Amino acid sequence: MRIWSLASEMAAKTPQDRNRYVDFLRALSILVVIIGHWLIATAHYVDGDLTSGHLLKSEPQLQWLTWIFQVMPIFFIVGGYSNAVSLESARAKGVAYGGWLAARLNRLVAPLLLLLIAWAALAVIMSLFGVSDPVIQMASRAALIPTWFLAIYIAVVMLAPLTYKFWQRLGFVSFWIFVAIAALTDAAFFAADVRWLGWSNYFWVWLAVHHLGFAWRDDRMGSAGRLLAYAAVGFLVLWLLVFRGPYPLAMVGSPDEGLSNTLPPKITLLALGVLQFGLLLSLESPMRRVLNGLRLWTATVLINSMIMTVYLWHITVMVVFVAVLYLAGGPGLGIEPGTTEWWWSRPVWVGVLLVLLLPIALLLSPLERRSRSADAAVPAPARQVAGAIMICLGVALLAMYGFGGGPFPRLDLAAFSLVVVGSGISGLLPGFR
Known about the structure:
By secondary structure, this protein is mostly helical. It has one domain. Helices cover 70% and strands 3% of the residues. It has 19 helices and 2 strands. The mean pLDDT is 90.
């Protein structure tokens, strides 16, 4: 109740000119991601053995649900809007790029660093207790799935001042340039089998989606009717790419062997982003009126006050909970995934995990709300960018291989060191400033 009261006080002080729908979409998206991850990962305990699985592989007929649960485009669109607002504010206050970037990195990296330190410690502890490297790798890879988003989003944030100028100069032409590059990259991926080039779509696809946030901020999207037309076009393109093209149906994970819409990203995610954006923005006017009500806005403020923490830790909570159930003899894990009984048990499963996640969020979320000291020295922009690149590379490697695995010995140690040293170089650790 104390937390709710504090959130209510913060909500009551919200400036009238703030677009509350942006914050609402961010909060809604995070809840969808959390529930989606908790449903898609399956664990089945039989005769002393625990089998981990992927719901979309065991129940492929459910892949269409990923068109709803894949909400990463919304995160990048909301990020584009928020970055545009913060860049305008920094410009008005005379804050240079270095000061702006320092504030953004502080909010993003501090909670991320805590998660990685925790899993590094867990990996060491499990190793000391004789847990095999494959088990450590499986658990840590699952828990670090959320971090891939930050690996690319930090890079997008570093580029935001340039891409926003690109948008202000060329408008939608800049958006279509990114779309064209992404489409050509996919063409090389499928037609010429140039698979390595496909990884560059982590930039082109998400920079294009991020641009939609700039368009939203500048009020360039038009009426609700036009937005619904955009959504219809997005749906048609997505349908054609999947059912008449080479792209898989699932928008999350890699249920199709050797082919995924997310690893690396494909233009299907762009089409999905346009579809989602058109539908959600067509509701902006009535939703902004609804959000003037204090109760819903308070809930939105509360979720946003701990959004990075709940996002980063929600799979860790599930992994630890499953491990505890396994050590206790598998209570609750004996139901075969995908059965009617299993589906009826999912509300209880999600409810228990939410109860377990809440105290973690309350305990750790102050870290993400802590701002840089007003008199803190701002590292040189080149130093911050170099450190952030190291962070992105280290996080990407850990998200891909976890702790205890990888194609090279001690890759996890090297990746973790990259994150820590990069954080220090960027001025995010006190001893390095």
